[in-house]
Design a protein that fits this description.
about 20% strand; alpha+beta; 11 strands; about 425 residues; single chain; six-stranded mixed sheet
């Protein structure tokens, strides 16, 4: 495998990795513009813009965009996160130039036709409605809001319906002009790719764009708080969040290994104690997420109204216990899970292209896999216990609970349980 990078004079970056033996490639443009780049009146517009990219350009209709890739058996899609928007495709080797042409076309030349804006507005409102009807989706939006209240990073990616209903063509064009600068874009490709050919093509397509200063995003400040939404559901959806390390913090690997050992699989502490031994839930897990300047360690469980208080108490007890007796075997198992998951995932060119883009955006380079594995292996049992201890002593937490909440614990009760 050959990793190569190149930066155009205007700041546009190209990063590729050739994977020998593959006959296909994944290619896309990742833009450092997501939900946290929005002003409050723009909340939801990054996602709206992602939708509109597929609704027609100066040289292709919406149908022609889809047909161009699907006629050659390929796949094209996009997503919006809180820090990035990605437009990507998977195609056979000979169709990589076509995929780049289509992706660059939808990124650089969307026409934002008024009729299509109204059509897609309806689609997004349906998407918002679907999310609101999916408790284990919406509860995480609420948890994010409680963790980072009144901040761009705390707002939902989809945005509120009233905002989506008001967005205009000018609003979309304004967001593009503010954030879609060449220095904020990364062309990433993995699989059967020719680096030199992609650089030459990128120079022709993106080289003329004028360099602009990147916009400054508001720093994140974890606050914590609680939201209980009472609704007649079959289950209570229970979530907690603690502040965690950001992407660049060396503790990021510690937090990920801890989350895996604590609640990342069937052998994890939470799964064994809460589900297997006590039968309090069907689904329970913990996970570590990170952003440029903050992170979250989150816990989720779905349980009955009568058992949610007990589940919350046991979770706090398990967190305290992890600080005292997390074993070397548990840590070794979590390290193995983390390494295997990463390496297995990177057998896919799509996952590898995304990693290239994300690492380039975060670090300005792509760390070698050996370097990452060494960082994972260097995390000790003592490091995990210390990390768990800091979480257990942390009184700032965010909590969101959705469902029948009559017996739900208060945030204060959980904090007291940790402090006991």
């Amino acid at each position: 495998m050959t990793l190569q990078t190149h930066t155009l004079p205007n700041g546009f970056r190209i990063v590729t990795e050739r994977m020998e033996g593959l006959k296909s490639a994944s290619i896309g443009v990742w833009v450092n513009a997501g939900g946290r780049h929005e002003r409050v009146e723009q909340n939801g517009i990054a996602h709206f813009l992602e939708h509109m990219a597929f609704k027609g350009t100066q040289k292709r209709t919406a149908l022609q965009i889809a047909e161009a890739i699907e006629d050659v058996g390929g796949y094209i899609n996009a997503y919006t996160s809180r820090e990035m928007t990605a437009y990507y495709a998977r195609v056979l080797e000979q169709d990589v130039p076509l995929a780049l042409d289509v992706i660059s076309d939808i990124v650089l030349n969307p026409i934002f036709e008024e009729r299509e804006i109204e059509v897609e507005r309806g689609v997004i409102l349906q998407e918002i409605g679907q999310t609101l009807d999916t408790p284990d989706d919406v509860v995480f939006d609420w948890l994010q809001e409680e963790a980072y209240p009144d901040q761009p990073i705390g707002r939902s990616i989809l945005g509120p319906s009233e905002r989506v209903k008001s967005f205009s063509r000018d609003d979309l064009k304004t967001f593009v002009s503010e954030h879609y600068a060449p220095g904020q874009m990364i062309l990433s490709a993995a699989g059967a790719v020719d680096h030199d050919a992609l650089v030459k093509a990128a120079e022709a397509i993106f080289g003329h764009l004028e360099a602009r200063t990147a916009s400054v995003i508001a720093p994140a400040a974890f606050r914590g708080g609680s939201r209980l939404e009472n609704k007649s559901l079959e289950q209570v959806h229970f979530t907690l969040a603690f502040e965690g390390p950001n992407y660049r913090d060396p503790l990021i690997y510690t937090s990920q290994i801890f989350s895996t050992a604590f609640g990342g699989g069937m052998s994890s502490r939470l799964f064994q104690e809460v589900r297997e031994k006590r039968g309090l839930c069907y689904t329970i897990f913990s996970q570590a997420g990170a952003y440029a300047d903050t992170g979250l360690t989150t816990l989720y469980a779905g349980t009955s109204a009568e058992q949610v208080a007990e589940l919350g108490q046991i979770t706090m007890e398990e967190l305290k216990r992890a600080a005292d007796d997390m074993s070397a075997a548990e840590v070794a198992r979590a390290r193995a899970q983390m390494k295997a998951g990463m390496l297995m995932g990177l057998e896919s060119p799509s996952n590898r292209a995304e990693r290239l883009a994300r690492m380039t955006a975060i670090w300005g380079r792509v760390p070698a896999l050996d370097e990452v594995i060494q960082s994972i292996d260097s995390v000790t049992t003592g490091d995990i216990r210390e990390f768990a201890g800091r979480m257990a002593s942390e009184q700032r937490m965010a909590m969101a609970i959705y469902g029948p909440t009559d017996h739900a614990p208060t945030l204060e009760a959980l904090q007291e349980r940790l402090a006991a």
